[in-house]
Amino acid sequence: MSRTNLSAMKFSSVYPLYVQKAERKNRSKDEVDQIIRWLTGYSQSELQRQIEEETDFEGFFGQAPRLHPKSSLIKGVVCGVRVEEIEDPLVQKIRYLDKLVDELAKRKAMEKILR
């Protein structure tokens, strides 16, 4: 998927898919929210506001208080691409989030997911 397609996608349309993926593996919405807050620095109320305002991914990450300093430790493959090798900063942030949700769905311990 190209940067244009990813950046224009609404975070609010993808968020329920993250929650569904986690819940299918007996993980919770709260854990998904914790991962998102860890990565972006949003508070729970700020995260909820981003969802309600139907912010696209570009705005979601652009308005994030801060990307977690340990986000560069996120490694692995998402959609056949190594996240640490993605050159576009926005696409890399989106894939970081995808990777963290994947790890949650694979029943990895939160302490390991949040590095």
From TrEMBL:
Record-linked Pfam families: DUF2200 (PF09966)
Entry superkingdom: Bacteria
Protein's name according to its UniProt entry: DUF2200 domain-containing protein
Source species: Oricola cellulosilytica
